[in-house]
Amino acid sequence: MSNGKRPTQLFRNLSAKIAAIPMILTAVVVFVGCSVWTVVYSFTDSKLLPRTNFVGLDQYERLWGTRRWLISIENLAIYGVLSLVFSLLIGFLLAALLDQKIRFEDTFRTIFLYPFALSFIVTGLVWQWILNPDFGVQNIVRGLGWDSFTFDPLYDSSIVIYGVLIAGLWQGTGLVMCLMLAGLRGIDEDIWKATRVEGIPMWKTYLFVVIPMMRPVFITTLVIIATGIVKLYDLIVAQTGGGPGIASEVPAKYVYDLMFQAQNLGQGFAASTMMLVTVVIIVIPWAYLEFGGRKHG
């Protein structure tokens, strides 16, 4: 009987499976194929054009001995940690406030989500103007009488990455808010009623009841934020161009510059491979938590 069901299950939704074949082939050829090609050629001394002259780990040794690459990793770590923490914190707080059935909720939700509709290029240019000391925040505050006020993060190499962080949070927090709000709206109303009857404070309800129930939402949100952090490029180019000097360099910009400006494909491939490894480190735990944990549960 079971053998008779297998062919039936195989041909179930046949049209949908056939329609998915081009997408699957594209993903396999473009993503997997290009990733393997990049990794293989990262062990060569390719310059302007790829060539199969293998040099072992020389490109990786040179990469991790380059000050510009180390600065880019440091910047990405600072930006990544702070972006994860503040995006989740601010996004959840905004979602919790909107979940109180406030008036004009749709208007507030649209306002908070609107920056996400803008590209990173537009966001970077907007915040470049806002943080410009000649006609931005610093100039406005000094015009109000505080002549000693100084706020020019994009022109200070020691804090430039925090200026970029402000723009990134402004754009991305709205999406986090919407994801968290969807998770909050999925909480059964009876749970809220039960905590009120028991006299549990609202902050304890959120901390010990609601947040654990929203675990899948938090995991998905973390992966979305983390993958966006790894490929950070547009915002840097539009806002600082990697400056002052190389103070705001990030790995994605390093890869682009090495491959298309310095014409050093081998070094660019090595840096790309390290970025790929970072993405894999993020995706594998997420896949295990989402699918492996659910299967075992």
From TrEMBL:
Residues 73-288 form the ABC transmembrane type-1 domain. InterPro entries: ABC_transporter_permease (IPR051393), MetI-like (IPR000515), MetI-like_sf (IPR035906). Keywords: Cell membrane, Membrane, Transmembrane, Transmembrane helix, Transport. The chain crosses the membrane at residues 21-43, 76-98, 110-130, 159-184, 205-230, 269-289. It is found in: Cell membrane. GO terms for biological process: transmembrane transport. GO terms for cellular component: plasma membrane. The keyword Phosphoprotein does not apply. The keyword Transport applies. It holds the Pfam family BPD_transp_1. It is a multi-pass membrane protein. Belongs to the binding-protein-dependent transport system permease family. This is ABC transporter permease subunit. It comes from Halovulum marinum.
